[in-house]
Amino acid sequence: MAMRAEIGRVYAAARKRTPAGAAIAVLALGTHEAWIAAGQGASPDPALQLDLGTVSTARRHFHHAPPTAIELESAIHAIEEEVMRARSLAPRGAPLFTASGAIRDMAWAGGKDSPREATVSIEDVEALFHRLADTVQGAPVSRAGMPVDAEFAATLTILRELLHHLGFPSVTVLRGESRDSDAWAPGSS
Length: 189
Hints:
alpha/beta, 7 helices
């Protein structure tokens, strides 16, 4: 229930920032699941739960730090499959909003000035992903300039696949709109 409540809080905050009637989408990314919802009105349409959490995806696919190329390819394939379930739900080109602490941390690692609130473009995510891929291919970890642990790799890969396959140009990380979604334990939703 907590993740559904987060969707409602983030949707309400995002709605205040966008013109009435404009399509928006929201993402709640937790440790063991993700929820996505979209809408044009005061409340979102029904949300969809995805089996894509930062910890669960990391445990399922990444057994090395940095991940191996095979682990990364396996994760991409599995995440794509799960993301495609939300294809009809998400309005292409709509703004995507989240309050995810993991995505906030990723934005900060990517060089955004404020780790509290930032808009991260698909190009920003792709640049971070290329840094991860370079490390996976043998570049020194110190050159990545970002975490290369399993949870960071999972967060980055989940967000990359969501943006690419659902047609979101960016994600705006809102500050102070919900509790840190990464702090939720299994079974809390």
